[in-house]
Amino acid sequence: MKHWYHPGFWIVLLLVMGIGIFPIISQDAAARESGFSVLLAISMAVSLNIIMGYTGYVSFGHVVFYGLGGYTGMYLIDSLGMSLPVAVIGGGAMSALLAFLLGKAILRLRGAYFALATIGINEAVRTFISNFDPFGGPTGIELQFSVYKVYGGAANALWITYYGVVAIAIFTVIFSYWIKSSKFGLGLMSIREDEDAAEVLGIVTPDAKTRAFMYSAILPGMLGVLFFFKNGNVEPGDAFRLHFSIESLVMIMLGGQGTLLGPVIGALSYQRLRVSLLTSDLSIGPLPLKEFQLVIAGLLMLLIILFIPAGLVGWLRQKFNALRKVLL
Amino acid sequence: MSVLLQVQNVSKKFGGLTALKDVTFDLPSGQILGLIGPNGAGKTTLFNTINGVYKNDGGKVIFRGVDISDKKPYEVSKLGMSRTHQIVRPLNDLTVLENVQVGACFGHENHSLAQSLSIAKDTLEFVRLDQKIDQLASSLNVAQKKRLEMARALAAKPYLLLLDEVLAGLTPSEIDEMIKTILAIRDQGITILMIEHVMKAVMNVSDRIIVLDYGQQLAEGTPEEISENPEVIRAYLGDPKLAEKLMEDR
């Protein structure tokens, strides 16, 4: 009994499809590159929203799933000669496995303790990978140029990874809506509102939280494979960049945590802002604005928490009751 | 009449403090058992120990023939025991309807989301909150939140309902309404264990009453026996008015 006709779902789906299809129609490489980073950001934010927005557990080191998935996929392609689709599935599976094990261990922590633990995990995995020889230690894994031959050469491989990220972005939206409108999702939101009350009401909280954590980890794992395959190499510093996690958090907060549309809008506007800062010639005193991306992210987060903690979509829903039926 | 709940020598300690000591009673199906006692007597602790929020430090709780002493709250809930909280715990950012659906979905009948919809609507009508269905739970007043807690617990279709001070903080007319609701729940065949400070209510609706004081059972009996028990009156003498009231309300 899903409400697949809900306008709030179609708004988000068509928005993401529109962003994804535009570069395919125009066949423009520059549009494809910006489309790739926007869709990557959207999928990361929508995935993180499952554990953070629906369940109320802030995963600060979520990039660990992206990095580990990426590494796993690159290893499967480079050392075991597997195809990209298999590597993508492998990366997702590895991230889900890590989330499952972590879920058993650290999801009993609440609030800030959980957030801190996830940062610790990211650092621990980074250090481990830096010293793990099969994954190339500190230098990482670099793909041979010949790998791309199977995919019609490097230029064509870029298009293939783009189709991959479009498919994943569309899937994350459907997946996120499915969770939000399911019985399982109702359980997650009960945990977010009051975990002790949720337990008394019969929600098997340890299982529900672990499942939510796994669901929010699978797609980042797959995205990591696509990104690093396109990139051609993966290094510990690139794969486990903590500030990528923090940027995803800002995107969710900006758009509205716990909503379907919020993370999409948040990712879209944050990416726009980032690009305009990076390409800007303006400067504040001796400092060029392009160095300012993370400063702005920090400020933005502060302002949102202080003034509109519900984010843009959450705020609209609170202010205009009629929008509740349209915006999810 | 079969015994639904057996509490046998249950004890609970917090550090050096003994909150409950050797509490023992049987609750037959279909009855209302009142649990009274001065503040800090261990009434809510007893609830928490029965439904698995706390692990007991001795003794056994047997529910429908199953030993639930070591079970988690969600396991106890799935066996058919629901409760309300003394300090209401609504799921604020969910609607009233969704709150009650949670009870129906995850309680012991394990309904699907679609099935839970009609159960939740019926239950809300029963507790007379059906006008508020689409409001957020946070927008309700205290009396309505208490009804919401009750609806959420009832939607699980429990065998046993634990009510923790559902009358506290209500106006006299709200209390009369709530008493009617409680009796109607009993008439549906649901067994009730209730903590209550409003003496008039607990004396009127209970089939039997247990008095707790400093974590120990001071007395057990029918409302008549309890109100005439000198030990009970002495326990309440810290609050002479209450003792007086106890006599009056009989």
Specify the number of helices of chain B.
Answer: 10
Instruction: Give the helix level of chain B as a range of percent.
Output: 25-40%
Subunit organisation of the chains? heterodimer
What is the architecture of the largest domain in chain B at the second tier of CATH? 3-Layer(aba) Sandwich
Question: Structural class from helices and strands of chain A?
Answer: mainly alpha
Regions with little confidence, pLDDT below 50 for 5+ residues of chain B? none
End-to-end separation of chain B? 27 Å
Distance between the termini of chain A: 17 Å
Helix amount of chain A, in percent? over 70%
Total beta strand runs of chain B: 10
Query: In what order do the strands lie side by side in the largest sheet of chain A?
Result: 1-2
CATH class of the largest domain in chain B: Alpha Beta
Output the number of helix runs of chain A. Answer: 14
User: How much is the radius of gyration of chain B in Å?
Assistant: 18 Å
- Please outline the major beta sheet of chain A: 2 strands, antiparallel
Estimated share of beta-strand residues of chain A: under 5%
Write up this protein.
The complex is a heterodimer of chains A (328) and B (250). Chain A has helices at 7-26, 29-54, 63-78, 84-106, 112-130, 153-180, 183-193, 195-200, 205-231, 236-239, 242-255, 261-278, 293-307, 311-319, and strands at residues 141-142, 233-234, 283-284, 287-288. With 328 residues, chain A is mostly helical. Chain A is globular, with a radius of gyration of 20 Å. Chain A starts with 6 loop residues before the first helix and ends in a 9-residue tail after the last helix. The model of chain A has no long low-confidence stretch (mean pLDDT 90). In chain B, a hairpin with a 2-residue loop joins β4 and β5 (66-67). Chain B has two domains: 3-80 and 159-249, Rossmann fold (3-Layer(aba) Sandwich); 89-157, no CATH class. In chain B, α3 (96-106) packs parallel to α5 (142-155) and α4 crosses α5. Chain B contains ten helices and ten strands. Chain B is 39% helix and 24% strand. Chain B has helices at 43-50, 73-78, 96-106, 113-126, 142-155, 172-187, 199-205, 223-228, 230-235, 240-249, and strands at residues 3-14, 17-28, 32-36, 60-63, 66-67, 81-83, 160-164, 191-195, 208-213, 216-221. Chain B has a six-stranded mixed beta sheet, with helices on both faces. Chain B has a four-stranded antiparallel beta sheet with strand order 2-1-4-5, covered by helices on one side. The model of chain B has no long low-confidence stretch (mean pLDDT 89). The chains are: A mainly alpha (328), B alpha/beta (250). Chains A and B meet through α7 and α8 of A and α2, α3 and α4 of B.
